[in-house]
Amino acid sequence: MSQLPLSAAGSPVTVIRADARSDVILVCEHAAHRLPRALGTLGLTPETRLAHIAWDPGALGVARGLSRGLQAMLVAATLSRLVYDLNRPPDSPQACADRSEVFDIPDNTGLTADDRLARTEAIYLPFHDTLHGLIARRLAVGRRPVLVTVHSFTPVWFGTPRATELGVIHDADDRLARIVADRAVATTGLRVALNDPYSAADGVTHTLRLHATPYRLPHVMLELRNDLIATPDAQADMARRLTAVLTASLAQLAAEGVPA
Amino acid sequence: MSQLPLSAAGSPVTVIRADARSDVILVCEHAAHRLPRALGTLGLTPETRLAHIAWDPGALGVARGLSRGLQAMLVAATLSRLVYDLNRPPDSPQACADRSEVFDIPDNTGLTADDRLARTEAIYLPFHDTLHGLIARRLAVGRRPVLVTVHSFTPVWFGTPRATELGVIHDADDRLARIVADRAVATTGLRVALNDPYSAADGVTHTLRLHATPYRLPHVMLELRNDLIATPDAQADMARRLTAVLTASLAQLAAEGVPA
């Protein structure tokens, strides 16, 4: 391995539209496939470094479109999930996975405690402390954020095709997710499923659990099948449809009021 | 008000025994009654600035004794809860309270959004990001922290005496709290109560909710009636008794194992 420190890769987080008016804060933890130079190729072929195990293809394009459509802040990762999966806690074997679906990640094999610590300090903590600060600052000035995380999933998993096109997932509070799922069924023509292809029980709601649930923020995790958002045009079209779904859903949530 | 920035008060957090062996991380959010020079006296008399509304009298002495007894890290506040109550989120009216029990806090009346933002940035975020970093670093190297927060409460509240001497409070996971309460009943001679004089429903478990619950860390909040820990000797004695209670409780928790 190189002697370059991980920090030479620059900030692991980028914030777009930090002063946006919308209460929504969009989060895209798997936005990028970039590897820091300090880690070389992780032992992967160029093809694998661009596969769905390295990032969520199309998710950033959709998230950017939602940021424009909703006029909402977007917090996005700049490095591959194979370096550190920001939607996993530091003690998860999946935080720095040595295997993902059918792929081995050779240079993630046999990581030491110091390796994990270095990635936690260089990537996990700056990303989540940045997001925490943005949420806390809004709460301090009387704004209630709504957290929307944007992901994509592979259409074929261990050889089995997945029918779901839009998964709508929640952590402890299901209110917004149920509204979004109902609206998406009614208006998008997509095959929509609640808590599919994953749910909180699979450990995929770490970001929501860390940032939304402690502050009782309404939240939803959107999982798009990545074959539907493979091109910039498809991403823009999906963002338009989901902007309408979220706008109507937030209005409905506000009309229903916050339960005691 | 002075033109001094809040940051001139120095760090809002101090960490003792950062490299300690114990899995316990002790937290004392209400350790101090110090006001930053930038905020003057908050309009309070010298007596009120030392009253229980400004800090948890005796809690830091007990927490320091526990840190010695358990050989455990201690994370403590350096400023009064009247400037920012670190056990409250930034949107809570109690974060920068203008009234506490029977006392008005004159200079906290009519705070602007900018005032709240400045205190959140100078006090709340550095304290909780420090604690988050310490927890995440331990998780990264394979250690599972146990969070123990140490508080004290006033023996007379709105004129009514409180019978409880040790309150044992939990957030989502009650396992450690139930064990600690049972041990304390059996061995300390104190009048012990679970979730009294407060409980999570009163919003007093913000620190646990922010740091323990998202990582599923065992946790407990200890609330001591402050007349029992009014002197350094009493604090040392209480720390000795609680060190024994916590040591036995952690052994029992480990023996019972983590539920699926």
Walk me through this protein's architecture:
2 copies of one chain form a homodimer. Chain A is α/β, with parallel strands linked by helices. Chain A has a single domain, classed as Zn-dependent exopeptidases (Aminopeptidase), CATH 3.40.630.40. Chain A has a 7-stranded mixed sheet, sandwiched between helices. In chain A, strands 4-5 form a two-stranded antiparallel ribbon. In chain A, strand 9, helix 4 and strand 10 form a beta-alpha-beta unit. In chain A, helix 2 crosses helix 6 and helix 4 packs across helix 6. The longest helix of chain A is centred in the middle third of the chain and has 28 residues. The N and C termini of chain A lie far apart (54 Å). The mean pLDDT of chain A is 95.
Main structural class of chain A: alpha/beta
How much beta of chain A, percentage-wise?
Answer: 15-25%
CATH superfamily of chain A: Zn-dependent exopeptidases
Percent range of helical residues of chain A: 25-40%
Count of individual domains of chain A: 1
Number of helices of chain A: 6
CATH topology descriptor of chain A? Aminopeptidase
Which quaternary structure do these chains form?
homodimer
Second-tier CATH architecture of chain A: 3-Layer(aba) Sandwich
Uncertain parts of chain A: none
Distance between the termini of chain A: 54 Å
Give the overall pLDDT of chain A as a whole number. 95
Return the string of H and E elements of chain A: EEHHEEEHEEEEHEHEH
Work out the number of β strands of chain A: 11
What is the CA-based Rg of chain A, rounded? 18 Å
Q: Could you give the order of strands across the largest sheet of chain A? A: 1-3-2-6-11-9-10
